[in-house]
């Protein structure tokens, strides 16, 4: 007769959760910060919204879009008022820090993603590529109104 030792055999009666088998990909706060530094304000909005969608937090996803659009409109208003020598890096540092802080406080920290059986990181190459697309979007979104006003003679 064959002995059965339950402590050494895997528990086959409890299936793994579908998410644990196929974990959901997320962006870490570090990835969001790096993407924001390269891709501008559009990257902050995009990467935070994607993570909120993964976490099924539609309220904060919508709030991110609204606050992001308000911030872009504020830049349209305030950028022309700044002196010519004002360092643009101040804006970059601001939205990089905001993006990281939102990700850490309202999404998941890097360690929480590492420890989670349900989540893994997107690749850094994906972050880089999407950051370049977001950079193009940021340039268009930030400069288009000024270009239109210039063409109209304002």
Task: List strands and helices in order, with pairings.
Elements (H helix, E strand, L loop, with lengths): L17 H4 L2 E3 L2 H26 L3 H21 L10 H18 L3 H6 L3 E3 L2 H28 L3
Parallel strand pairs: 1-2
Helix pairs in contact: 2-3, 2-4, 2-6
The run of helices and strands is HEHHHHEH
Tally the helices: 6
Specify the overall morphology: elongated
* Oligomeric category: single chain
**Strand order, biggest sheet?**
1-2
Written overview of the protein:
The termini are far apart. A two-stranded parallel sheet has the order 1-2. It is mostly helical and 154 residues long. Residues 1-15 have low confidence and may be disordered. It contains six helices and two strands; from the N terminus they run H-E-H-H-H-H-E-H.
In short:
A two-stranded parallel ribbon has the order 1-2. It has helices at 18-21, 29-54, 58-78, 89-106, 110-115, 124-151; strands spanning 24-26, 119-121.
Task: Name some characteristics of this structure.
mainly alpha; elongated; 67% helix; single chain; 154 residues
């Amino acid at each position: 007769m064959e002995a059965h030792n339950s402590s050494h055999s895997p528990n086959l009666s409890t299936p793994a959760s579908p998410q644990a088998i196929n974990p959901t990909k997320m962006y870490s706060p570090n990835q969001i910060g790096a993407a924001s530094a390269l891709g501008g304000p559009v990257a902050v909005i995009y990467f935070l919204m994607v993570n909120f969608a993964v976490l099924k937090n539609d309220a904060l996803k919508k709030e991110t879009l609204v606050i992001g659009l308000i911030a872009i409109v504020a830049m349209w208003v305030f950028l022309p008022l700044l002196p010519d020598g004002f360092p643009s890096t101040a804006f970059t540092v601001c939205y990089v820090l905001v993006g990281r802080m939102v990700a850490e406080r309202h999404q998941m920290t890097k360690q929480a993603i590492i420890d989670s059986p349900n989540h893994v990181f997107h690749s850094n190459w994906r972050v880089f590529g999407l950051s370049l697309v977001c950079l193009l979007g940021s340039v268009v979104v930030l400069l288009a109104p000024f270009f239109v006003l210039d063409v109209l003679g304002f």
